[in-house]
Amino acid sequence: MAKKTNEKLMEMAIKQARKTMNKNYGGPFGAVIINEKGKVIAVSSNTVLKDKDPTAHAEISAIRQATLKLKTHDLSNCVMFSTAFPCPMCLGAIIWSNIKTVYYGCDSKQTNELGFRDDKIYEFLKGDCKNVNVLELSNQDQEKCTALITEYKEKEKQIY
Fold first, then answer.
1. Model pTM above 0.85
2. CB contact set of 74 (below 8 Å; sequence gap of 6+)
3. Is the Cβ–Cβ distance between 75 and 98 less than 8 Å?
4. What is the sign of the dihedral through the CA atoms of 85, 107, 83 and 41?
5. For residue 156, how many other CB atoms are within 10 A of its CB?
6. What is the pLDDT along the chain (160 residues), one digit of tens a residue?
7. Where are the beta strands (DSSP E) in 56-130?
8. Paired strand residues for 84
9. For the chain, which terminus, N or C, has the lower number of CB atoms within 10 Å?
10. Is there a catalytic annotation at residue 143?
């Protein structure tokens, strides 16, 4: 992709982030998704505060918009532009949606310096999810849940 085109797409993400940031809808985060032809499919920003939804990150919202518009869960032919390095939740959603390329502006060190807690999640994951100061995980009803997974497998349901 041409550098000038990339700059325009990132500017679109920045503009959307600034707009909602200044309305106190959420943090300084914006995202744009384009298809393989370079057509803009989704433009979104962080609306955590407005929606009172901790998952209302720019990347997640852009993925939701794009999948609705394209009527598919598979965005493998798309590219994302994000004003910041995606948090672990957004990285997971990006990977699950099959987006293969993300251009980002700020790095996670910069967002951590603002007080966003991505680093705590990365530490938790590195520690094999054992840091109880972040989250306590407790296994329960494994046999019943395993039966559900086995049932899914036996019905040869689609893996995505």
1. yes
2. 97, 98, 160
3. yes
4. negative
5. 7
6. 677 789 999 999 999 999 999 999 999 999 999 999 999 999 999 999 999 999 999 999 999 999 999 999 999 999 999 999 999 999 999 999 999 999 999 998 898 888 888 888 888 888 888 876 778 888 899 999 999 999 998 998 877 7
7. 79-84, 101-106
8. 106
9. C
10. no
